Known about the structure:
The complex is a heterodimer of chains A (985) and B (312).
Chain A (H helix, E strand, L loop, with lengths): L2 H21 L25 E4 L9 E10 L8 E7 L5 E6 L17 H5 L9 E3 L8 E3 L2 H17 L6 E5 L7 H9 L4 E3 L6 H11 L4 E3 L6 E4 L3 H4 L3 H13 L3 E5 L5 H4 L3 E3 L6 H14 L5 H7 L2 H8 L7 H11 L5 H8 L3 H13 L4 E4 L3 H5 L4 H14 L8 E3 L40 H7 L4 E7 L3 H4 L3 H9 L4 E7 L12 E3 L9 E3 L6 E7 L2 H8 L18 H12 L23 H11 L4 H7 L4 H8 L1 E6 L18 E2 L4 E4 L23 E7 L2 E3 L14 H5 L25 E4 L16 H6 L5 E3 L1 H7 L6 E5 L3 E9 L7 E3 L7 E2 L19 E8 L2 E8 L42 E7 L9 E4 H12 L5 H4 L33
Parallel strand pairs in A: 7-8, 7-15, 10-11, 10-13, 11-12, 15-16, 16-17, 25-29, 26-28, 30-31
Antiparallel strand pairs in A: 1-2, 2-3, 3-4, 5-6, 5-17, 9-14, 18-19, 19-20, 21-22, 22-23, 23-24, 25-33, 27-28, 27-33, 28-34, 31-32, 32-34
Chain B lengths: L1 H8 L8 H8 L7 H9 L6 H5 L7 H13 L14 H17 L3 H28 L7 H20 L11 H4 L7 H4 L1 H8 L2 H4 L5 H11 L8 H11 L1 H19 L5 H29 L9 H11 L1
Amino acid sequence: MTKAAKIQEREARVSAAKREAEARGETFYPGASRIHLAAYPPKERWADWVELESSAWPERVERRYMLVPTTCFNCESACGLLAYVDRDTLEVRKFEGNPEHPGSRGRNCAKGPATVTQLTDPDRILYPLKRAGDRGEGKWERVSWGQALDDIASRIQKAVDEERHRQIMYHVGRPGEDGFTERMLAAWGVDGHNSHTNICSSGARAGYHFWMGMDRPSPDHANARVILLVSSHLEAGHYFNPHAQRVMEGKKHGAKLIVFDTRLSNTATHADHWLSTYPGSEAAVLLAVARHLIRTDSYDVGFVERWWNWREYLEENHAGEPVTFEHFRRVLRELYAEYTFEFASAESGVSAQTIRAVAEAVAKAGNRLSTHNWRSAAAGNLGGWQVARCLFLLNALTGSIAVPGGTYPNSWNKYVPRPIRMPARHPERWNDLTWPGDYPLSLMEMSFLLPHLTAERDGRLDVYFTRVYNPVWTNPDGFSWIEMLRDPERIGLHVALTPTWNETAFFADYVLPMGHSAERHDLASYEQYDGRWIGFRQPVLRTARERLGEELDTTRQANPGEVWEENEFWIELTWRIDPDGSRGMRAFFESRKKPGEKMTVDEYYGWIFENSVPGLPERAAQEGVSPLEYMRRYGAFEIDRGVGARHETPVGKDELYDLRVDSAGRAFARGKARKSDNVVPLPPLDGDETGRRRVGVEVGGVVRRGFPTPSGRLEFWSRTLAEWGWPEVAVPSYTRSHVHPQNMDRDQLCLISTFRLPVQIHTRSANAKWLNEIAHTNPVWLHPRDAGRIGVETGDLVRVETQIGHFVAKAWVTEGIHPGVAACSHHMGRWKLGNGAAGDGGDAGGFRQAAATVALDSDGDAWAMRRKKEAGPFQSSDPDTARIWWGDVGVHQNMTFPVQPDPVSGAHCWHQAVRIKRAAPGDRYGDIVADTSKARQAFRQWLELARPARRHSPDGTRRPYWLLRPVRPERKAYQLPDAGAPALD
Amino acid sequence: METLRALGLLIEAPGPAHGEVARALGLSRPPPAPVYQRVVASQRWPYASVYLGEAGMMGGDARDRIAGFRRALGLDQEQDPTECDHLAALLGLLADLCDWSAESRDAPAAKLLEEARGVLVRDHLASWIRPYLASFDYCGDPFYRAWATMLGEVMDHLEAAVPAVSGQDSLPAALRTAASLPDPDEAGRDSFVAALLAPVRSGIVIVRDDLVRLGRETGLACRTGERRYALTSFLTQAPVVALTWLAGHARAWRGRTEGRGPAKIAEWWTERAQRTESLLSRMASEAGMLDAGVARSASVTRSAGIARSASR
């Protein structure tokens, strides 16, 4: 046989072997990115995977695992994890990345693998506990789930029957899921959703929302020419890992990285241009870049003409002038004329030369400019929401919206499947504890004002759930939270749903243990590239045991102790509130397959996967499994990629029946709406007076989908802002922050507290020992110039004085911070009272790895916290806890911050004007002092900046109807009461 | 071209899939992971950049050149393997190009794909694969030796089959622009030793086992450490002995690349190994004269330099 014939014969043989393997549903070659570090166990062997036991080295001891996918819950990215479940002991031994997950693609940050330390934490809560002494006294008794559920259900039942719906509130920190909870509250008819978002991302989200009707960016970093981040996003921010890996891909392909960050963050170290902007000046710099694009005609004129609402802007703001695009270009030029590089330099402290270089880089990017702002400047400053609005102005100018390498709207890259029995009902009553009329444009609930709103108006909450939320520690003004939580007149019953102890749970009436990420069900989908996927969080031990043939009715049968699965908790609670279905709640949690019985999580998710996820049933059928089995096997499913520019999509002829296009180009018609099972939140846009539905906007002679804004276009000028009392900021503009030098005394510094430690989670990492070992303290960053003036060196104690109190921390002198600015991460400073508030951890317990024991004293409004004992080693079921070598766990600075709500977005403006001094005699590390009467005073000062609905609403409503809002009430609930909104002033 | 993908897979860390793939190729059962570790992962790194890069290490311009080739093909950047110059990635890409070309119904596109295939074979595989495969001749493991032989045969077949592309007579860019060994006296010991270990500069491959053999055959002590450290240590202990052994090694290498693969490329590697052999022989001789105390003239400056720097 010739050599060529031999080669051909071999080729035929290998091809045949490959065909046979694939016919068996197996992969002949492991995945495409299989080289070395990217190697993963091939999926067909996940059911029985053999690895050598590392702890047995040098012996070669084999261990057999079942690899079960789930979704990480340690930030909001929802990265895929693979749990390695030991087949012999049925223990989770470790977590690694899930290569089948389209967002994270098998790669995780430290927080993902650290999940195993949360599962095995000896201090975790395993049984339902009921308060046995006063709130915060630390006395608890173990109760049965039945007792707790009946008690809570009867209170809710009574409140609903007495029409006190407003007194039921669910307050969530990390949602980590799409749809379940909002569906539940809608089923209850309760406008009781409260989130943490106004202390987090809502400032930035408002900026995006006013532009495009959607409130988050989905940047395509991997294909960008220029990546512009206003944050330490790459290394420490939200969507940390899925975005970070794509930023690095973009860099690998030659993209320039521009980072605005006052600190030399890890992200800044990767930047081609690092701009250490003075806090709050970011919008000024961005407008200088915009001015450069405009004056050098380096913007996409065609895109601006097609998609901006420039006509509406001219008509409303330049009456009598020509309504032509050429005139708009002249006006635009004039509008931003003052934002010279020199002006931006004076505001930011960054050289004009550097800003020019950045502007030129952006100009060269064409429409491949990916940008992102999450918290950072938007969460720190008065007017912070304008930072995102000015950042997105650059995308809007360059046409880099919904194009490869640009920035997409989040809702187009996200998929929330329609659930079974979607409640059509909306709450009838408006909850002005979360949506007070003082802040009609706030993007999210005014959650951090809750202690003040309950104190200063009739604000009793009869049943208050905190779920994965720790406002005492996370929010500003923590002592006011303690006052509220201790007050039985304001909080009737506080139920803390949490897997671990936290500072808020100490003051609860019930502490109910919920599962960690590997012990619960959730669905999640996030904008991480131009594609849509869903990720399925599942209790891995339950799945493993069912695969081995066990039949389990509930997840808690597989969870440790008496830890419940949260979906099952809400189903059970709803049934107890509405046992006979007469309140109209039970029906939404009743089995469709077995009428009269409770819906199971299998039925809930099984129905969704079978009916609401395009392509999933077909994909599952190819493998001969049900859609639910498919999701339990792989943990994620990519619905599509390359979603593209939806706004350009022509509306189908069938929808355009009886079309009417108004003078602004908005298209209304009576055709049937296209059915979509994606219920991702989008603004509801009103139809016309004759009942036609809004279908799109006419652009270039074609009716296109457009953007979900009142105009259907990108809203350079926001009629909403203009008509609701804010005409001066209706176009992207620069507001001088409350920490602008002109607003501070000469001896004050700006303190920034919004930055993350890359490996820490907010409230739940206090029991993740690996993460605590890496990062556990939060010194105050000081520039050498400031440190010299104050007279301190690294390690010296400093007293940081805020408007309502002070804290004592250690200085860290570094050139990695802008002069005149101090920085202290909000992640640390965990504390416990050491009075017995513990689960299994005994009287010193709670969360011992990362919490100092403190004494809490109050005298009227004067509060003080003093450290009694640092963290340290202790004996437990985990031998590692005896090896804890760190003691300094940082200082809880947030307690000394007053609330500072932005009058437009409602976001808390985190940055503080502070005085920093050498610690006074008698000051001790960790001292925290605050006066809640001063906190109330600060609340009122900021409230004066607000423009309440009752004075500024153009149509007698509480809030513009089109703005996004969780658990949207009925339309009539939007109407302001005749007597006017119950504003506080 | 499943054969290419299959051969690519077998140079990755052994996994459960390897047995079936090897069987389909007609190879014996792959050895366990420790053998892979010893033979491949710690000695014969399957990356083009190791053999074509001036530093003899992974990454750098040599990898960028391949990444650029992928970009020029318009491949989805997001799907790019991190290690695009890994042999498995290159063989996988070649197999893809073969498939796409066969499936394409658009004649100009098919022609472009064929041309791309030619560039990939000549510039990014043939340019370094023969010295790499030759290093398996004496690797001590029959499976990997057979694998290398098989891949060599497939490469012969591919090289003969790829269509002509413009400029095919010239050498691949990586070879055309590769610097040769530096003057040891000017460059200094460290740079010279580093260059000697970079195949594209010296024309030879020195794996860790070679250094162990050097020690065994010459009676010199092989210091534990990275190759550069071990080699420097030999040159410090006994420059003449070490240089003489290395010259012999280069001579043997000349034979390993001679006549293998495309003529121009084989000639380039052979010629470079020959120059290295000559240089090392001359240095050995000059160092010997220095040792004998007869070196006084300028002609021995070079060897005196390396000997001095080696003993520093």
